[in-house]
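Thread: quick sanity check before group meeting

JM: Hey all, I'm pulling together slides for Thursday and realized we never actually wrote out the predicted structure for the chain we discussed last week. Dropping the sequence here so it's in one place. If anyone has concerns about the input, flag it before I start.
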Amino acid sequence: MKKTLNVLLFGTAIILLAACSKNDDDSSNCEAGNYGVLKVNFGVSNVKHGILVSYPGGSARDKIVAIGKASDTVRLFPGTYPIEIASINNSNQAIETETITVNITVCEDKETSVTF
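JM (edit): ok, ran it. Output follows.
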């Protein structure tokens, strides 16, 4: 009986250690990937939204967020970025826009909100 209890306790300890190391791996993914996260909260979810990230050197990335989503995230390498957030119509034309500047550091979670 005592041997069975010891085996159960040992098995439980291994499961807990595996769970802890998995969480540690998740938190170090941003370090290995060299990125931070920007979360954008939208004031309304009945329209599409666009998130336009402008990179140094003139390139840009546009992310379209589907109707029904109240927020979305973007992973960014460390640096300072102008970000244009827009509500957009079915033709992907901007209805309302707001431009912010965000400074991203490794493993940092930033959050911003717009009213539209």
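AS: nice. Confidence is low (pLDDT under 50) at residues 4-25. Residues 81 and 102 are 5 Å apart (CA to CA).
JM: adding both to the slides.
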